[in-house]
Amino acid sequence: xxxxxxxxxxxxxxxxxxxxxxxPPEHNTTNLDLDRMNLMLxxxxxxxxxFRVIHITGTNGKGSTARMAEAICRAYGMRTGLYTSPHLExxxxxxxxxxxxxxxxxxxxxxxQTKDLVALVDAKMEEQGKPKMSFFEVLTAxxxxxxxxxxxxxxxxxxxxxxxxxxxxxxNADAAIIGPxxxxxxxxLGDTVEQIATEKAGIIKPNCTAxxxxxxxxxxVMPILAEAAERNHAMLVRDGYEMTAxxxxxxxxxxxxxxxxPNGTYEGVPIAKFGEHQAHNALAALAASxxxxxxxxxxxxxxxxxxxSSVKIPxxxxxxxxxxxxxxxxxxxxxxxxALRKAIEESYDFKQLVGVVAMMRDKQVEEYLGVxxxxxxxxxxxxxxxxxxxxxxxELEKIAVDVFGRDRVIKEANLPDAIxxxxxxxxxxxxxxxxxxxxxxxxxxxxxxxxxxxMLEEHASPTMRQAMAVHQPAVDPDDSDQPADKAEDEAAxxxxxxxxxxxxxxxxxxxxxxxxxxxxxxxxxxxxTDSTDxxxxxTHESPPPSTIPPTSGNPxxxxxxxxxxxxxxxxLTPCISRNSPSADLNPSPPPPRCxxxxxxxxxxxxTVRASRTSSTP
Length: 617
Known about the structure:
Elements (H helix, E strand, L loop, with lengths): L12 H9 L13 H10 L7 E6 L4 H14 L4 E4 L11 E3 L2 E2 L2 H24 L7 H15 L4 E5 L16 E4 L7 H4 L3 H8 L8 E4 L5 H14 L3 E4 L5 E8 L2 E8 L2 E8 L4 H17 L8 H10 L7 E4 L3 E5 L4 H14 L4 E6 L7 H8 L5 E4 L11 H12 L4 E3 L3 H15 L8 E6 L2 H11 L5 H7 L15 H15 L7 H5 L3 H8 L43 E3 L4 E3 L32 E3 L8
Helix pairs in contact: 2-4, 3-9, 3-10, 4-5, 7-8, 11-12, 12-13
């Protein structure tokens, strides 16, 4: 960061984001080359050569795998840089240092350092009759420069789309992870899995370790990936062959599994995410971490367990509320829908699950809905905030009716209204009022998940913050030679002699003051209670809260506002669910079990036991 001139032009985060995001998108067939990125790195002096790289592609699971690998490397004391996409709430999320996204000042400062160089590249491309840098290329260049400037020991980088011509492919990976390859982005990557696999195999670089996740189209895809690895003299590590995930067992907040890599077997590893696919993502992340962490042999099982049990992955089967359970998932293709369905069937026991769906018009909408149809009681179709790409609610409704039937489909074009409608439907069927067995699934796009997350995130109430801010005087250590027991007895006697009940004022203890207490007693809204605490720092003017009338089955439905608020007679106060989301619970494994014997070729690999204990449901 430029400490001498941080944000020297007094730019706002909104202005910087508009500058960057107004550039051409990466969804462009006219910029399928790395000319702009290579020129940018030449100008910057090739900062990408200063750190090791884990590069991740695949149709699904890239973001989860990236965050898991980053957590493992950080647990080992390595300084980490993380670059992921898309962002859910703030553009800052895309670039993180040591697990923390860039602050607004940091982000603005990096833009200030690179924007003149971006203009230089744009001018050079214009001379050659080529397009200027896309917003994704600009963000990628900013991330690489920030990683070198920090500096980091290892960068974990998620491909934006494809691999071969992606802006991130100017990096030479030490470990290249290729997750499941399936049909998505066909208009840019090709309309067969073979063509898509060829694009993704482009991140395999000379002498790297190529880590291949489970492939749904193995017969078609694996020969292409194996040929790319052989051509680049890369070491090939395949899920199901050189590495395995086994002995999976559901646990509180996630699962426990035994992970076997080329370096050893890790038993009872806690993974704080639901679904079999997340166990395989963790396996790939672990294998890649073994490549870049400077340790011979297997990694420390306790550190691996600590990392994978605490990693947070927003928008990926994320339970953000309880009572009723509300789950967010940003997956938007058939493979993601299949993983989502399996995870819900394995980890939850819903009697009623209402879907809230908004999708982009260029996705396989009917196939996606068809995969989820067996687990959804009904579906509320809606629209997200990306108006240029989102499928209109009228069109989505027609497709949903074909899949679910007329009686199971409701249309609410406004997303806050759609969420409120779903919650009302769940409440109407919840006779006990505790939300058990009833839930809402918000899915179909990362934009949908991000919009919903902004509305549903819990915020501490102003009154609670005020109570927590009460000054607690520091206690100086007692240096006297008086025995501790005798001193405590004398202090207790003195307290009884000098203090009476009349000396205490409950309002002074709470830090409210008698005047404020009087206002509270008469129902007057506190001056500190305002709606600014309920919105994200980068939101500007939020739409008014949704007020869906109660359904006939429940006279007191929960209100899901935008942002997360509930109307009262005199004030607008944050709406906090009764329980903390279970996704915040860190699962930990049961006492170590004997792992199933690895294949004979792996019999010499050491076994690492995770020492943490776990409770299972």
